[in-house]
Write a structure and sequence with these properties.
The protein is an alpha+beta fold. The protein has 5 helices and 14 strands. The protein is globular.
């Protein structure tokens, strides 16, 4: 009788333990990872000479365009490995580009995959969207942490190259696409804005002035015998009122100014024959 009671107690303890294990397994089975946000329709699916990349930042995705070769190569490696990495987008610009959900985008050429970034520029795309002018004017860069690459559409090989290996001049369809892209950006044109300008030798720093064009002059500034932009035209931005809009050669916006968007102009700032961001449109905020 005593022996049967001990067996009964042991059996009861075994059943209770087994029930706990089964309960834990059942609980584990119903846990699923959070669903990723749905991909939006691309607005740059016909673009070439770069890559269209989709990244996941937390529970939000961001579709972007990149012309930065090392960034694209690293994105492909991350996609294959499934690893996460910090990203750094050095220029945040106003206006929608590839991703129709966001009214801002990052500059296609200035991006990298650093090991360390600052907390001040970390965040999800929705956080940039909700306060984008502060990001453009004060933070100036976007550096999300633990980014996961969802897809990479590498279209660099789709663009023909010259025998020298340099970029091929823009084709008429590419020129039309760039023109329509610039027309779609809701930024006021800086018409009838009186700006004081002067010409200087290239790379001379003048405080309160920004480079707006360049040209070749073989009779001054080093007397170059081959065409090279040895003379710069600079504009005096420091005297313009708050709200003023100026177009300048691609670079960093001065303090108190924010880059609204970048564009290509084959007649200014190096006169590039291929579609590339050589012009920035900036607005004074303070």
């Amino acid at each position: 009788m005593i022996h049967a009671t001990r067996i009964s107690h042991r059996f009861r303890r075994w059943v209770v333990a087994l029930s706990g294990v089964l309960s834990a397994c059942a609980s584990t089975a119903v846990v699923t990872p959070p669903a990723r946000s749905a991909l939006p329709t691309s607005l740059c699916d016909r673009r070439v000479r770069g890559a269209e990349i989709v990244i996941d930042v937390g529970d939000t995705s961001l579709r972007l365009w990149s012309t930065n070769g090392p960034f694209i190569d690293k994105a492909i490696d991350l996609l294959r490995s499934g690893k996460t990495q910090n990203a750094l987008f050095s220029i945040v610009e106003d206006g929608t580009d590839c991703d129709p959900r966001w009214t801002w985008h990052v500059d296609a050429a200035h991006m990298s995959w650093p090991d360390l970034t600052m907390d001040a520029c970390n965040g999800r795309p929705i956080e940039v969207e909700s306060d984008k002018y502060r990001w453009m004017a004060r933070i100036r860069e976007y550096c999300p942490a633990n980014v996961r690459v969802r897809s990479v559409d590498d279209r660099r090989k789709a663009a023909p190259v010259q025998q020298s290996g340099g970029p091929h001049p823009a084709t008429p369809p590419e020129i039309e696409e760039e023109a329509r892209r610039q027309q779609s950006v809701e930024v006021p044109a800086p018409l009838r804005v009186v700006v004081e300008t002067q010409k200087i030798c290239a790379r001379e720093a003048v405080e309160g002035w920004v480079k707006v064009d360049d040209e070749w002059d073989p009779a001054t500034c080093g007397l170059p015998l081959t065409p090279t932009p040895n003379v710069w035209t600079i504009a005096h931005y420091d005297t313009l009122p708050v709200g003023a809009v100026v177009t300048a050669c691609m670079g960093s916006a001065p303090p108190g100014w924010v880059v609204l968007h970048t564009s290509w102009n084959p007649t200014r700032c190096g006169a590039p024959s291929a579609v590339t961001s050589n012009i920035m449109t900036m607005r004074r905020l303070r």
